[in-house]
Amino acid sequence: MDSVVEKTPVITPCKVQGIAPENGAPCADVKAVSEEPSKVSILFQWTSSEFADGYELHVFESQNEIFSKILTSLEATVTLDRGKSYSWSITAKNGNAEITSNTFSFTTPGEAMGNYVPYAAAITVAFDAMTSDMNIFWTGCDEDGDTLTYDIIIKENETLLAEFSDLSVESLDALPFVPSSVYSIEVTSKDNFGNFSISKHYEIVPN
Fold first, then answer.
1. E-assigned strands of the chain?
2. In the chain, what are the domains?
3. Which listed residue, 30, 60, 118, 203, has the most CB atoms within 10 A of its CB?
4. What pLDDT, on the 0 to 100 scale, is given for residue 6?
């Protein structure tokens, strides 16, 4: 009789939260870079993740990833340009699984190098168990005060659920949700100068 081999359950790390730089604001805690007056040194910090063996820091300028590093610590220092907007996220990892944080953003001090890219939108998701409705809200912001529009992509377990373009509002009509599903919400914030930022938010619906 064949023996039954029990599979080891996959344990996904917990999602981390960004601590510094402060989300959606100019970054004041910076250090000058010797002999590079157009640069500043930024300290990134985040919370620890249960079940994680390490972390990968991702830093973006608009949609372009300009820095990525795998770390075992809860902080890292990155040299960036003055007068720009950046976004960042942290992926918590172990040998079997990983999970990426929501997107955070900030601007570096200094005279703007052109028009600022919008901050990554702050996304909020609320689930109503009584109606099985999912309510999605977001808050956009721009250091220049530009008027913003938004493109939205919503996925349920990696399958496209809904997509919207050029919205001027910061919420959607309620959408149905399925318990135990994973939802990803991506909001692209656009100004009228062609600049944009992408914010990603992940939610695992309880049973």
1. 18-20, 25-26, 30-32, 39-46, 54-61, 64-71, 75-81, 85-93, 98-100, 104-107, 122-128, 133-139, 149-156, 159-167, 175-176, 182-190, 196-204
2. 11-114 (2.60.40.10), 116-207 (2.60.40.10)
3. 118
4. 63
